[in-house]
Amino acid sequence: MKEIRTEDAIGQILCHDVTQIIRGVTKDARFRKGHVITKEDIPILLSLGKDHVYIWENDETKLHEDEAAKILQRLCQNEGMEATEPKEGKIELKALHDGVFHVDEERFDAINELDDIAIATIPQDFPVKKGTKLAGMRVIPLVIDKTKMEEAERLAGETPLFSLRPYRNMKVGVVTTGTEVFLGRIQDTFTPVIEAKLRSFGLCINEHRLSDDATEHTLEKIQELLELGMDMILCTGGMSVDPDDRTPAAIRATGAQIVTYGAPVLPGAMFLLAYYEKDGKTIPILGLPGCVMYSPATIFDIVLPRLLTGERLTKKKIRRLGIGGLCMGCKSCHYPICGFGK
């Protein structure tokens, strides 16, 4: 790449985009990289503040910003993603289907720590819709040493940095616990909330059971749903530390492995997650605290998309939700476009 006076650039190949900004109207490239500069272009370039331009000189030790961006694209892009063409040295990735976006943080950070390389993404484990912008990537200078891009390739390894995990079609069972609901003293207002949240993922409640507060009765209902082949079971009611709240004991009695009873998330501290193994299948069993019924965003909204992709959540993953685990209680909730759970 060589810098020359614009007036001397007729017939030369422009090696960078020249952007034109008209406030409130446009911000786009007036001339694209690779454009052969003509006599008629000179006054336009000068009006854009380009007294000098960079023309392309082939150098085997350097890469143009577009070529470097394509290398970053190859290191990041995985199935379920589509890439834009380079524009002003930047490439973006978008989702081809709904799912949960995930980044290999260790390798990603190692590459971003290299000088002159910039990759930006949406938050980790973010639930996305088809068409959502996932990431943008570019190098900072117009040209970059090949050795630096080779180092990025080495740090990235053989597999893409990103993944977009699709949602599974799961059969969901719900056990509503509470003598007052079981006997019809009060209306069940929890189940409609669960139905609405599942519906946003194209799912429904396939089986629903009511139980009083007796541990053995709640256990029977959970076991019924397990026998019916549910892929996930959600238990509502009886999740606090009151003596008559016995849903956690019923879940334990199934023989399921308890991952956690309690989470550093507010609202949602009394959340329970367990896994039941049956015929080679792992079935998540969730104990949902009462806040899920009345708070717009809770621990349930954070973990549900990840569980629907088949991800197995560990105690460590749940504990890591503590930073960002405090809902700000905004007057108008716009979760997940916020810091909650990020």
Write the layout of secondary structure elements.
Elements: E1 2-5, E2 18-22, E3 26-31, H1 41-47, E4 52-55, E5 62-64, H2 65-76, E6 81-83, E7 91-95, E8 99-103, H3 105-112, E9 117-121, E10 126-128, E11 133-139, E12 143-145, H4 146-156, E13 162-165, E14 172-177, H5 179-182, H6 191-199, E15 205-211, H7 215-227, E16 232-236, H8 247-253, E17 257-261, E18 272-278, E19 281-288, H9 291-294, H10 299-308, H11 315-319
Parallel strand pairs: 14-15, 14-16, 16-19
Antiparallel strand pairs: 1-4, 2-3, 5-12, 6-7, 7-11, 8-10, 8-13, 9-11, 17-18, 18-19
Helix pairs in contact: 2-4, 3-4, 7-8
Short description:
The protein is α+β, with helices and mostly antiparallel strands and 342 residues long. The chain has 11 helices and 19 strands.
Describe the overall structure:
- It contains 11 helices and 19 strands.
- The protein folds into 3 domains: 2-55, Molybdopterin biosynthesis moea protein, domain 2, CATH 3.90.105; 62-165, Aldehyde Oxidoreductase, domain 3, CATH 3.90.1170; 172-322, Molybdenum Cofactor Biosythetic Enzyme, Chain A.
- It has 342 residues and is an alpha+beta fold.
- It has helices at 41-47, 65-76, 105-112, 146-156, 179-182, 191-199, 215-227, 247-253, 291-294, 299-308, 315-319; strands at 2-5, 18-22, 26-31, 52-55, 62-64, 81-83, 91-95, 99-103, 117-121, 126-128, 133-139, 143-145, 162-165, 172-177, 205-211, 232-236, 257-261, 272-278, 281-288.
- Strand 18 and strand 19 (281-288) form a beta hairpin.
- Helix content is 26%, strand content 28%.
- It has a 6-stranded mixed beta sheet with strand order 15-14-16-19-18-17, with helices on both faces. Strands 6-7-11-9 form a 4-stranded antiparallel beta sheet.
